Amino acid sequence: MEQILVVDDDRAILLGLQQLLMQAGYNVTGVETGNKALALLSSPPQLTILDLMLPDMDGFELCRRIRQLPGVYIPIMMLTARDELTDKVLGLEIGADEYVTKPFEPRELLSRVRAMLRFAEQRQLTQIPEITEQSLVFDLLKIWPTQHRVEIANQSIELTATEWSLLELFVQQPGQVFGREMLIDRIWGPDYPGDTRTIDTHVKRLRAKLEAIPNTPQLIQTVRGFGYRFARAK
Predict the structure, then answer these.
(1) Strands (DSSP E) along 109-177, which ranges?
(2) pTM attached to this predicted model
């Protein structure tokens, strides 16, 4: 059973999240401070859901400290009432995999939790040191799909769960146009109730990591009025 750590200083929200996730079949631990969360990471959970506003440190600082842990990757979902775009971008830039605002739709939250846990499981299963795999080459971009490994100009790139899911879809069918609804359905499932524009934020972050000039993308191209498509392999 997957272990999820929830960090929120609002007792009512903390208990509500624990109940929601436990009813969905997960093993859940809830704490109210960042320091209590850090003390539990000697046995890393499969997923951490954290609030931005904590009494001892903010969620950004907690996220940074989790990402600094050697030899372990813990998927992180930020859950907060702060809806400013700058907060979302900062959260994703420092290593959060998802950013969900309060109030949230329980089905949306569970859809994102399931997607993040699938990614974490696949990442763990494919981290085999001796694996030999031919890379996919797109100009300076190289991708090893079964290893979840990405390089730009021979430099390794770390992707979040959603960014990898997007890239995986694109490289499986280069040249195909994907609409926002199609991407949402393939990543989070047909019952996802969130705004389809959410996908634009994740595409923007993926472009920032993969494109030489993100504002003039060559790999992830916008098809105006339809969606996105990925360049074909070289």
Answers:
(1) 136-138, 141-144, 149-152, 155-156
(2) 0.62
- In angstroms, rounded to a whole number, what is the distance separating the alpha carbons of residues 91 and 49? 13
Distance between CA atoms of 7 and 50, rounded to whole angstroms? 5
Taking every pair of Cα atoms in the chain, the longest distance, rounded to a whole number of angstroms, is: 53
Q: What are the average pLDDT values for consecutive 10-residue runs of the chain, which has 234 residues?
A: 91 94 95 94 91 89 87 84 63 76 85 84 57 73 81 85 87 90 84 75 89 87 91 66
Can you give the three-state secondary structure of 54-82, one letter per residue?
CCCCCHHHHHHHHHCCCCCCCCEEEEECC
Q: Is 30 helix (H, G, I), strand (E, B) or coil?
A: strand
Q: What is residue 141's predicted lDDT score, i.e. its pLDDT?
A: 85
* Separation between Cα atoms, residue 181 and residue 132, nearest integer Å: 35
Task: Classify 148 in phi/psi space as left (phi over 0), alpha (psi -120 to 50) or beta.
Answer: left
Which class for 116: exposed (0-12), middle (13-18), buried (19 or more C-beta within 10 A)?
Answer: buried
SS3 161: helix
29 beta partners: 5
